[in-house]
Amino acid sequence: MTAFFAEYGLFLAKLITLIAGLLLLVGGIGALVERRREPREGHIEVKSLNDRLEDMKTDIEAAVVDEALARQHDKLRRKQEKAEAKALKKALKQGKEPEKPRKRVFVLDFDGDMHASDVESLRQEVTAVLTMADKDDEVVLRLESPGGLVHAYGLASSQLERIKSKGIRLTVCVDRVAASGGYMMACIADHVIAAPFALVGSIGVVAQLPNFHRLLQKHDVDYEVLTAGEYKRTLTVFGENTDKGREKFVEELEDTHALFKTFVSEYRPQLNVEKVATGEVWYGRRALDEQLIDAISTSDDYLFELCREHDVFELSYEVKLGLQERLGQLAVNTSDGLLLRWWQRVTNSRLLSR
Question: For the Peptidase S49 domain, which residue ranges apply (predicted)?
């Protein structure tokens, strides 16, 4: 029995490899086709958080409230909506100014990686918000990022500055982490909220790289680094690094750190930057003590409360996946599913054999 499952597992492994190989081949062909086309355009999707919560409430009522009472509530709700629409139509027909609508809140999401890849979507979302929002509105950014490249997060921060420069209130919610470049973005906000155990801070700069020069020397391999300009290349992975190059590299790190501290100080003058700009991170409650944030809460609670008095909309920039991306996603999902099922069968067979 054990030999049978071993052979069956080997067969499945070969099958998975074959399927993945075919998908990668077709994906490669698709990539060549996609490159010949113009860049794909995306579109803005808008969803009402108020409507979503109302739908949830209706579903709960249908399950726990008396059926007749639930129908009565639904009837009254529809009647009220109809009356409001009728009143608005009448006011517009008579040339009257309609009542000022409720304050609007636009919710954006940023899930940061090393390269702040989400900035491409963020810039489109911010542009869309600025075409509609005014000074009475608010933008809420749900931010998750451990940081990354300085120039990438500098651009992401600049997108948030576009909101501030228009006089629109900006709130940043951190549920898990906003560190280093993530905090560079967060500190721009008028109001920073973090969950009790969210990680916040890391106002510092780090760089690390291996050096294989001695290994290459051991195998009689020469690696030439040719530059024009004294500091065109300070440290390298394969060339021989010098003390002078290291000193210059550290000097550049210190200068970047100084710029980072100045940036944070401009947006959060109440913060003792010299005390917190040590590269350390703090959990939410400790971050509040250090004035890195303004309040303790989750984004869920904050948005739930806003929905009581405001119209809350979630915005996202969606790009239709090309052939290459769809095939790549299919390959990952297929291989993961097959491997999971294979592992479950092997595990079950071992348990049965015992």
Answer: 164-306
Among residues 93, 100, 135, 232, the one annotated as catalytic is: 232
The token pair at 24 is 């990668």
pLDDT exceeds 60 at position 330: no
Min mean pLDDT across 209-213, 245-249, 302-306, 328-332 is at 328-332
pTM of the model: 0.75
Q: Single out the catalytic residue among 121, 145, 157, 180.
A: 180
- Taking only the tens place, the pLDDT of each residue in 248-266 is 999 999 999 999 999 999 9
